[in-house]
Design brief:
Number of strands: 0
Distance between the termini: 15 Å
Helix content: 40-55%
Radius of gyration: 12 Å
Number of helices: 4
Shape: globular
Order of helices and strands: HHHH
Strand content: under 5%
Structural class: mainly alpha
Length: 87
């Protein structure tokens, strides 16, 4: 599957902002969408399922504990790496 960062970012941002719009300006590397309440615990399960199905990847329990999983930029990189589209 050929992925680019923009395609993954679009899916991630769309899911996160389905509850509330993302701030007009935010740093995707530090904005913690979980702490900010954009995705709750049930939403995390739905989010993982969506990303796994959409991009043909699988998350492990350790991924949920990773600080990378908590930010939009980190999650985009994680998806790309799992899909083999990033180093």
């Amino acid at each position: 599957m050929s992925l680019d960062e923009a395609a993954v970012r679009e899916v991630v941002h769309a899911f996160v902002q389905r509850k509330d719009r993302l701030p007009a300006t935010f740093d995707p590397e530090t904005f913690d969408y979980l702490d900010q309440g954009y995705v709750d615990s049930i939403g995390v399960i739905q989010f993982m399922g969506l990303l796994e199905e959409r991009f043909g990847i699988a998350f492990e329990d350790a991924d949920l504990e990773s600080p990378e999983f908590r930010t939009l930029g980190g999650l985009v990189r994680m998806v790309l790496r799992k899909a083999g589209a990033a180093p």
